Amino acid sequence: MPSAAKLNKKEEYDSRLCGFLEEYDRAFLVHADNVGSKQFQEIRRGLREHSVVIMGKNTMMKRSIRLYIERTGNDKWSPLLEALVGNVGLIFTKGDLTEVRDEINRYKVGAPARVGLVAPNDVFVPAGGTGLDPSQTNFFQALNIPTKINKGTVEITTDVHLVQAGTKVGSSEATLLAKLGIKPFSYGLVVQQVFESGSLYNPKALDIKQDDLLGHVTSAINTVAAISLQLNYPTLASIPHSVVNGYKNVLAVAVATEYSFPLAEKVKAYLADPSAFASAAPAAESAAAPAAGGGESKKAAEKEPEPEEESDEDLGMSLFD
Fold this sequence. Notes:
321 residues, alpha+beta, flat, disordered C terminus, structural constituent of ribosome, Ribosomal_uL10-like_sf
């Protein structure tokens, strides 16, 4: 039988989690492998203004969520029941989801490669000096790492892909990375899912910007309009294009025949005498120039006219003399 102290702790945990379920509408489901207690303290301190972090056994979290749903009839948190798998926790928040996600990712610390650990990322050893004495050459040769002796130390001649992501770290690889002082891995809370408005979705969705959404919507509308026009099937996307195309057809008929309507009169007038429209444009520009020029126009007007060049008649000569 569980002790009274354990029962009290379970009740306190249930009360605390249910309080968060009632108070918050959004949360992050985070994975917490290899995160130490000190790191948790820093994360809680950094998120304290707008978020709370709660960890616990999956069975306890699921129990509390189920009891909350049964007691309140509010089942919006039910998607979490299937997602609580592994070493996970919840971060309830009232802040901007993108900003909180970025804040969570800030609290990651470097960690050495331990033997038997599954590498979360590829590990490369860069070319260059190692600071190790030549007696360590055999160690590098065992790992097929090309080296040379330079100024009394071992130097790696080319970059080496030492550990592949998803594979276990061997004892030789772990020893070498420790000798070189390389901490290839970083650990922290990893956001796995985002809960919002009763739904779970991938955190990559937070990287989608408003312009991206508008671009996708515009592209989709253009595609629907093109298909509708090709099939001669009217839709809301194609109707504006159909109206414009219909107007062009009617205008073409009016220009080619004696049939006319008000909008076609302007086109017919232009086709009949394009020079009238060409002369009207410079006149409009010249009329606007004094208003824009102001004082400069007055100064130009006040300038004395330049003397005309003497003609051939003034000189008593003619081109045909």
